[in-house]
Amino acid sequence: MTRIMVVDDDPLIRQLLMYQLGGAGYEVCVAQNGQDALQRLLLEHPDLVLLDVVMPDMSGWHVCRAIRAWSTVPIIMLTAKSAESDIISGLESGADDYISKPFSLPQLLARVEAVLRRTTPNRRPARPMPGAESAPGCSTRDPPPQPDQRPRPRRRTDSMAP
Fold first, then answer.
1. How distant, in Å, are the alpha carbons of 1, 18, 80 from that of 75?
2. Nearest 5°: phi and psi at 118?
3. Within 13 A of 15's CA, how many CA atoms are on the CB side?
4. Model pTM?
5. SS3 of residue 50 by DSSP
6. Any residues with CB less than 8 A from the CB of 61 and at least 6 apart, and which?
7. For 135, phi and psi rounded to 5 degrees?
8. S-S: 126 plus which of 25, 53, 137, 151, CB 3.0-4.6 Å?
9. Is residue 104 part of a domain?
10. Are strands 3-7 and 75-79 parallel, antiparallel or unpaired?
11. Does residue 144 fall inside a structural domain?
């Protein structure tokens, strides 16, 4: 299961994201500040980090640079700082994407999937995309299609002789 770490000092945001991401099929772990995030990252090994910028002990930009010093885990900044210079600072710090609060849940989920698709080879989405069940060979429950087996030619037997 894909694990996402949510790093935000606001308990309501953490709770909302835990509920929404969990409902979308992700395993969610949380950190309440930058220092906690850096420690938990070593223990939790998340597949993606959602990182706030404005936190009491260290900024999300600082946390992002610290993570990038030793890890390639995908990072999406999720923050109220929405000025163009803030977005550029986030991306230059090493973030893979940047989402401003308030955010739309469908857009957040789409961006999470897009970043994971680019960074995780052979990854399947947390939930099948709508309509995938009806496409042949696309169901996550069906076995992969097998190569065509051609009928073997019949052997000629004495009963078939003229």
1. 18, 17, 16
2. -75, -25
3. 3
4. 0.74
5. strand
6. 53, 89, 90, 93
7. -80, 135
8. 25
9. yes
10. unpaired
11. no
Q: At what angle do helices 11-23 and 105-119 cross, to 10 degrees?
A: 70
| One-letter amino acid of 43 | L
Place of tokens 């051609």: 150
Cis? peptide before 102, omega within 30° of 0: yes
At residue 46, the 3 state secondary structure works out as coil
C-alpha 93/C-alpha 101 separation (Å) is: 19
How far, CA to CA in Å, does 72 sit from each of 66, 79, 129, 141? 11, 21, 27, 31
User: Considering the domain boundaries, does residue 159 fall inside one?
Assistant: no
Domain of 65 in residue numbering reads as 3-128
CATH number where 30 lies: 3.40.50.2300
Q: How many domains does the chain have?
A: 1
| Selection from 144, 100, 92 nearest residue 122 by Cα | 144
156 lies in a domain? no
Per-residue pLDDT of the chain (162 residues; tens, 9 = 90+): 899 999 999 999 999 999 999 999 999 999 999 999 999 999 999 999 999 999 988 999 999 999 999 999 999 999 999 999 999 999 999 999 999 999 999 999 999 999 999 988 766 655 554 443 433 433 333 344 444 444 454 555 555 555
For CA atoms 48, 54, 55, 58, the dihedral sign is positive
